[in-house]
Structure formats: structure tokens, C-alpha cells
Amino acid sequence: MNKQNYDVIIIGSGLGGLSCGATLAKNGKKVLVLEQHELIGGCATCFKRKGMLIDAGLHEMDFGSEKTDMKHIVFKKLGLFEKITLVPLPSAWSVKVLDSKSGGADFDEANSNKAKTQDFLIPHKSTKEALISYFPHEKKGLEKYFKKLNFQARLNYKFPFEMGFLEFFFAPLHTLFFLTLSAIRQRKVGDMLNKLIKDSKLKKILNINMAYYHCDAWRFNWNFHAIAQANYYHQGVYIKGGSQSLSDALAEIIKENGGEVRARCDVKKILLADKKAVGVAFVDNTNSDSKAKGVQELFAEKIVANCDPRIVYEELLDSKVSRADSKLTQNFTAKTSLLSVYMVFDTNLSKKFKDMDYSTFCIDKEYFDKPFDREGENMLAQDIEKRGFVFVNYSKIDSGLSEREDRYFGVITALSSYEEWENLSKEEYKAKKERAKKAFESRLEAFFPGIMEHCIHSEFATPKTIERYTRAKKGVPYGWDQDLEGFFARSRFKSKSVKNLYFASAFGFPGGGFTGALLSGYRTARKMLDPYFYPRQLGLCVLFGVVASTLVIEGIKLLLG
Questions:
Q1: Between the CA of residue 273 and those of 278, 321, 499, 500, 531, what are the distances in Å?
Q2: Which of 28, 55, 216, 278 gets the highest tally of CB atoms within 10 A of its CB?
Q3: Taking the alpha carbons of 243, 249, 252, 257 in that order, is the dihedral positive or negative?
């Protein structure tokens, strides 16, 4: 019999793996997290350039009220509020529409003064009122839109195992019925916006940050849009010191509770005994001695995969064993990805550009004037170099990223897909990256004339870059495309074919993004800690219901004599 080294070994240190590990460790489990990269955190990491910390993934994080956002519960349970500093953002975001033919990929500095923009400021909390002031003819539609947003967010404010007994008992009436109805209807964002709003420009503004979730408004599920938007409109935050601070805080919780987090440890295989996961084989790349880099084995009662499930099924498990689970991944699509231009400036952009928001969505008038329909909103069908983008100006807040007083960080991000960058030679790939980088820099100059003279460093990342560092196939930071809602719409939290093998990542329930990954890891840990919660709770509900109804009936009989 193999010696058990740990209670749980977690493969990967993305937010799902770290939140799962932190929850398990705080509940007395001996946890080991193994990360193949030199930095822990997956997409929640920071790297250094020119005296700056560059945040690889986090622009802003939605942070709703305690009535709509489950992160309040998770952060309190894990003690994260004491370990990280949440910096409130000045607004949800702004939208700039370039109203000049001098904008776009053909822009040059000679005609920069001709550029004119139409600006929309989207504030927190008073979002509805601000939008009504811009589109007074859509007041009725906006009131319906925000009512539906808030209703959907309130439905999803707690996992069942966080509910008190009476709240759980009555959940079928106040929550489960509506969640079931929503899952049956499977509404899409494009259809809902067309149903509620008539003005195409307003619909584009309401859907302006779709790159945070999906690439197609007519496939993107309404539930994911509603919950996140409701929380973003309440308050957006940044984590001081970057997303790496969040990853490091979760790792610290694991270590404080007797666990370990090791970087540069590449898992090559999940070890099995009678179709039961019992350990992992990995290569420790922290040792400079090549002879010491041989495959090592460690054993645990349970294994959690924080990586892309396809890596587990196709690389870490025997194909015969994993066949039953691998078929499940064929039901999902994974297309939504991003491109980014990471930029370092030598001046404070907030002082140079007084009207520059923290987060500014930049689009051309040509796109803004088009109807809101399937063809017009198919972002991936647009030329990469002319695609709308968001520019995040981190100097607007006390981000904690700069190691020097004369260095400031900004990033351009737009939708992309792996298919746009594959099947290119090394030279073709490099040339395409350079063309796209120059086009986005030129367009940023069109929106903010004079900005590029202060850019001292920029580098371009594609979906292939995301795949290289996170190993998520096709570089999908959000996991499966968020087309459907419900448990069946995401990967299972537990393997069907391999006992004691679990999953915790953006590919699982409830979904992708920073919030989704955090909640996915927490949910998996809670279900591992209390696998009999539902049968026990349901049994108690039945017993309570029988006793309560019996007492009511007997009471009525007494009253009636």
C-alpha cells in the first residue's frame, strides 16, 4: 500500500485551485499545491518590466453587495479581507466613440487634432440614472433591464450549503423555482437586449464589456451577464499590488494551515490504484541538478485538478480509464480568448489626460452606428486591427504596481481566438503580432492624442501566449464558453470514472473569470468536506415538513373542535 503524504494534492495554482486548497487547509486538511510555472496564480499573476509590476489578467473585479455577491461569504470564511486591500474604482467604466475618419488602424499623428469622441461615463450605483440621462427615450426599457439584472443576481447570492436551515427549507419557493425556470429558458444576451431595448447604441453600451465573458452575444447566457453586470454596477474594485496579491494571499492561507505550495513542479501523471486516484508523478524543476529532476511520486487521499480538464483526460490519465469523462468535454465549446498590449509609460496618464477614466472602452463610430444584430456584433469576424478594445489606466488609482515614481502601467485588451493565430510559421506569427500591436497603439493615439510619446515599453500577448503560460488549451482564460447555465453546462466537480479525482477551475460551475474560478474552487472544497450535505439536509427538511404539517393539521382540528 502506498504511503499517504497528503490529504489532498492540487494540480495547478490558478484561483480555483488556490481557493479550493485554502478552504480545505482551513478545515484541517494537509494540502499540497503543485504549479508547473514559476509564478503561482494562473491568470492571476504579475510579472516585472521596466520597474513595474505588470498584471497579466486583472483589470477590475466586480464586487456587489452582500445580497448579490457570494464573494463576501468566501472572503470572510477564508480571511481574505485581512490579507488583501480592495481599491474602489472611480466608475464602472467609460465608453469613447471615435467620431472621425482619422481614427482606426490608418491613424497617424499628423491628423490627431481632428479626432473627436462621444463620451459616456458609466458610474457605480447610479448607473441606471446615468444611462437614462443619455437615452431618455429608453427609460422604460432600462428600468426593466436593471430590474431583471438585480433579480437574477439576488437568486445566485448563496450556495445552498451557506444557507441556514429555514432558508434552505424554503429555497424551492424563493430561489430554486426561478433558477430552474431560468435554466430551462436558457436566455441569451443578444435576445434579451433586443427584447428590452430598442436603441442599438444603448444595446452596444450595455454589452460593451462582453470580452470579460464571451465572444458572441447570441450564444452568451443571460444569467452570467446579469449577475456580473449587477455586481460591476454596484462597485468595481482592483486588488492593490495586482492579482498576484490575491494568489499570494490564498497561498499564504494554505501555508499558515499546514499546507504547501510549490512552483515549477510539473505534474506528468495521476497515479491510480483500481481506478482510484492515489497520487501524482511530477518533475521538480526547482533543482538545478539535472540528475535530481527525475520523476517523483507523492500520494494523497484525494486529487484535485485545477488545470484544463482536457489535459487530465488526454495527458495525465490512461485513455481507457478516462474515456467516460473525456466524452463529456465534447459537449462544450472553448473559443473565447483575448489579446493584450502591456504598456509602460513614463508619465502619469491621469494627470496628462484629465478625462481619462480607469477603464475606457474605445470603439469607432462606424461600428457604433451599425445595428445591434448577429452580424454587427460578431467581434471575431472583424479585422483584428480594427476591433474595439478597452484601455485600462492603472495610474488612476493607488494600484501598488509601480516600483518607481516615474513608471505607470496601462494595457489594451480585445477579444481574440486561438484560431486567428494558429497554423502560422514562426516568422508569420511574429509579423502578425507586430502589425496588430502597431495598429492598436495607433488607434490608442487616436483616442488620446500624444499618449504614445510617453510609452517606453510595450509587448503583445495572444491566445497562444495564454496557452503557453497557463497550458489551458487554445488559451481560453474563461474555460468553456459560457453558453449555458446550470450544473450540466460546465465540467463536473468530480470524475465519473476515477474515484477521489475532483476538479476546481474556470471550466467548472459556476463559470469563468476571477469570480467564477474562486467560487468554483470553494464549492469543490465544500463538497469534498461534506459529501453528504444534500441527502442529510433534504432528509431533515422532509422530517421538519412532516412534523410541521402534522402540528398544523392537529392545531386546525383542535380549533374546529
A1: 7, 11, 10, 11, 22
A2: 55
A3: negative
CATH code, residues 90-123+337-416+422-461 = 3.90.660
Three cell numbers at 36?
A: 508547473
User: Rounded to an integer, what distance in angstroms lies between the CA atom of residue 440 and that of residue 214?
Assistant: 21
What the block records as the C-alpha cell of 541 is 427538511
Rounded Cα distance between 335 and 351, Å, is 38
C-alpha cell at 467: 496557452
SS3 162: helix
| C-alpha closest to that of 229 among 285, 294, 149, 163 | 149
Spatial contact of 190 and 217, defined as CB atoms under 8 Å apart: yes
Predicted TM-score (pTM) of the model is 0.93
Strands (E), 156-294: 236-239, 260-262, 265-272, 277-284
Q: What is the pLDDT of residues 326-377, one digit of tens each?
A: 666 777 899 999 999 999 999 999 999 999 999 999 999 999 999 999 988 8
What's the CA angle centered on 249, arms 248 and 253, to 5 degrees? 115
Tell me the DSSP string of 79-120: TGGGT--EEE-SSSEEEEEE-STT-STT--GGGGGG--EEEE
Q: The C-alpha cell of 135 is what? A: 437615452
CA distances, 192 to each of 49, 210, 223, 512 (Å):
43, 14, 11, 21
- Provide the phi-psi class of 42: left if phi over 0, else alpha when psi is between -120 and 50, else beta: left
Q: Contacts from 311-314 at CB under 8 Å and sequence distance 24+?
A: 311/471, 311/473, 312/11, 312/270, 312/501, 312/503
The 10s digit of each residue's pLDDT in 12-25 is 999 999 999 999 99
E strand spans, 110-220: 117-122
Contact criterion met (CB below 8 Å) for 46 and 242? yes
230 vs 290, more confident: 230
Please say whether the beta carbons of 85 and 238 come within 8 A.
no
Give residue 76's pLDDT band: very low, low, confident or very high (50, 70, 90): very high
| Alpha-carbon gap, residue 87 to 102, rounded angstroms | 36
Q: CATH says 6-49+244-332+473-530 is which class?
A: alpha beta
- SS3 readout for 523-550: HHHHHHHCCCHHHHHHHHHHHHHHHHHH
Largest CA distance in the chain: 95
How far is 238 from 62, CA to CA, in rounded Å? 9
CA 162 to chain centre: 22
User: Which residues, in sequence order, are CB contacts of 434 under 8 Å at separation 6+?
Assistant: 460
- Does the pLDDT of residue 481 top 70, yes or no? yes
